[in-house]
Design brief:
Helix content is 34%, strand content 25%. The protein is an alpha/beta fold. A hairpin with a 2-residue loop joins strand 2 and strand 3. It binds uridine 5'-triphosphate (UTP).
Length: 289
């Protein structure tokens, strides 16, 4: 079934990035010259998804503003004859149809997704986390939509991570059923060191059936009072198959300081305007082989 709508949860507090995120949402911090969430919006648009439901929270109005038209700025650029910049600014507001829903309190990823229920309706939908950046020739969510065409149930993006990092992720136990596709038997959220069932980590891209909403309604909050998506997925897996898809691309956790800097370096080195200058600069930092 064709996926037409995407939910982008962006209502978290971004505590790993304080104090930068006290007022500025982490999703708006730039990777070179574009906010993280714009890369994600571009991924959605180039996969042919028509409507995005943005889940926002406190101090997140600026995310909506970023994707809205800015008449004042456009007039200014017109007056200054900066047609090049005008085009860039106008393209952002025309990218996709955006609807935003406010999550009044950040009660977890599961709760954030539940906030989109009324707008999503009755078809399978995509979820892309607002701080998870994936650099890929074919957009990650597009790769997943292709695989999902012949499936029912849910599809999760997965990636092999170093064994010593499995405690930072949701980890699946699965059986390989096709090239890059695993049938998920078990999911463990942030397993204790040495107790992970594999090194296949769940990454911030999902295609979910609408049944997940009924399930999330019933999921009990965890110790921190949050409704976890993984708990919902575990219950969903008792009713429908869940698959993991090992996507092709490089992933950066832009909500984490190190991941954010890595993304900036990687995108910076490929940037037509600054790439070669950045490379030269980096080489001066490490002059000896
Ligand atoms: P994270 O756990 O990375 O976001 O959630 P966070 O809570 O903002 O981060 P830290 O740990 O405090 O630094 C993954 C995604 O889910 C969204 C976040 O905005 C992020 O894009 N999210 C999380 C919500 O929309 N609502 C929530 O209640 C929690």
């Amino acid at each position: 079934m064709k996926v037409k709508k995407a939910v982008i949860p962006a209502a978290g507090f971004g505590t790993r990035f304080l104090p930068a995120t006290k007022v500025v949402p982490k999703e708006l911090l730039p990777i070179v010259d574009k906010p993280t969430i714009q890369y994600i919006m571009e991924e959605v648009a180039s996969a042919g998804i028509e409507e995005v439901i943005l889940i926002t929270g406190r101090e997140k109005g600026s995310i909506e503003d970023h994707f809205d038209t800015s008449t004042e700025l456009e007039n200014h650029l017109r007056k200054k004859k900066r047609e090049d910049l005008l085009k860039i600014v106008q393209e952002i507001s025309g990218m996709v149809t955006l609807v935003s829903v406010r999550q009044k309190e950040p009660l977890g990823l599961g709760h954030a997704i539940l906030c989109a229920r009324k707008i999503v309706g009755k078809d399978p939908f995509a979820v892309l986390l607002g701080d998870d950046l994936i650099d890929a020739k074919i957009p990650c969510i597009g790769q997943m939509m292709e695989v999902y065409q012949n499936m029912e149930g849910a599809l999760l993006a997965i990636q092999k991570v170093p064994r010593q990092e499995t405690h930072l992720y949701g980890i699946i136990k699965g059986k390989k059923v096709m090239d890059r596709v695993y049938s998920v038997e078990e999911m463990v959220e942030k397993p204790e060191k040495g107790k992970a069932p594999s090194n296949l980590a769940i990454i911030g891209r999902y295609i979910l059936p609408p049944r997940i909403f009924d399930i999330l309604e019933r999921v009990k909050p965890d110790k921190r009072g949050e409704i976890q998506l993984t708990d919902g997925l575990r219950a969903l897996n008792r009713e429908v198959p869940i698959y993991g898809y090992e996507f092709i691309g490089d992933r950066y956790d832009a909500g984490d300081k190190l991941g954010y800097l890595q993304a900036n370096l990687s995108f910076g080195l490929k940037h037509p305007e600054i790439g070669s200058k950045l490379k030269k600069y980096l080489m001066t930092l490490f002059p000896y082989p």
